[in-house]
Specification:
Radius of gyration: 25 Å
Distance between the termini: 50 Å
Number of domains: 2
Order of helices and strands: EHHEHHEEEEEEHEHEHEHEHEHEHEHHEH
CATH topology of the largest domain: TIM Barrel
Largest sheet: 6 strands, parallel
CATH superfamily of the largest domain: Aldolase class I
CATH class of the largest domain: Alpha Beta
Length: 465
Amino acid sequence: MPAKYVIHHTTAKPRFRPVGKLGIVDWREDCSGCHNCVKRGCVYRLYRDEADTLRDEVGYLDYIYQCKGCLSCVQNCTKNILTRVVNPEYRRLGDGYYTPDLVLSTWYQAETGKIPVSGSGYGGPFSGPGFDSMWTDMSEIVRPTRDGIHGREYISTSVDIGRKLSHLAFADGQLNVDPPPLIESPLPVIFDRIPRHWQRGAVLTAVTTAAAKIGTLAVLCGEDLREKDAAVLGHVIPLLETPDASAAQAEWAAPFVMIPDSPDVMEVQAALKRGPSARIVAIRIPAVPTVAGRVADLVRDGADVIHLTFDSHGREESPVQPRHMRDVLRDTHTTLVKRGIRDEVTLIASGGIAAAEHVIKAIICGADLVAIDIPLILALECRLCGECRRGQPCPITLEEIDAGFGVDRIVNLMAAWHSQLLEMLGAMGIREIRRLRGETGRCMFFEDLERDSFGRLFGKRKSGS
């Protein structure tokens, strides 16, 4: 049995003061100046730390936005002049999918490398669009030996990338077929191509170096690959964006390349596979309503890897009621199973993977592994304000980050995600993440529970309600 895969992490303090969620409003004009002010008794020392910072930098104390929300000061103030509020800057973080809570959680993980724990349990949502309506099976969580982090059980998060044989053939006791090349990733997460407006300063260097450090892979466009250090090339997947570029660069030594879907994509794949070295080719396909049939046809024709891409919120490209990744993956996986070719291909999904739980849920729906981009940028303190898209200066000066700082933050985020994957797999009683693929029996879907429980009483829910 191989040694346990461990991502070593170290604390990476943020360059900018994080945006806190809560604050305490202090109505000073009513303060009686108590000698034993409740502020001094803050168990988190937030008032003292904040007062020191503001006295040195600003000169006055106003709002305290690192409050933990214990309400001790609010309850114990003799004049009742303290009240808790939500930081208006916090409300402006992220968007409707990457919520402020998710942004703060990602920042915490990137700083500490640890699982975020609220201390008050999971507060929801318990249903909603996409992954929020999936509830994973945690029936084995009561067994201490199932603990993926602290227990004695070995839990593997490794996945194989590449085409598999549908059967083996032997002659005179010897294997009579050449197995296709495979790449083993110790983590079911690779780094997707970073959008252009975030490719600033040392961002790409930090992403590729972090991928090499933890043993995973990173997708880079062809023109960016030439600038990378040779030490990380074994962990880079060149994205050859046009068939002409693919043919012209077919002699590259990269063992794994990616090409966009096209009418002659199988001819391009065949050209890339010619040569003395074995090479894996991934076909990048935008998710559309008919994508399941297209994927099945490509697998039948010999595709190695299929990379399904969704938008940043995990939705397919459709002008009318686009489906979430959850439903598209289930449809695609089921189509391949019905045609008897599911085990021959590796299926990667990207877009809308915002948290560690989404990795598990995407695999349950049928993916082999996922690719991420926005969480990597969030790890670098991005607030998703959209200023860079509009050509405005970045409020966190992303172009000025140090590569080492970026590597530490990304490695920490992946360490926290890996720990959560182990926790979830242990709670489900699964020792190998490969076995989780397509195992929809390991979770419950809100729609199914609602239909079985209330369908006979209230009928079918209207679409969109």
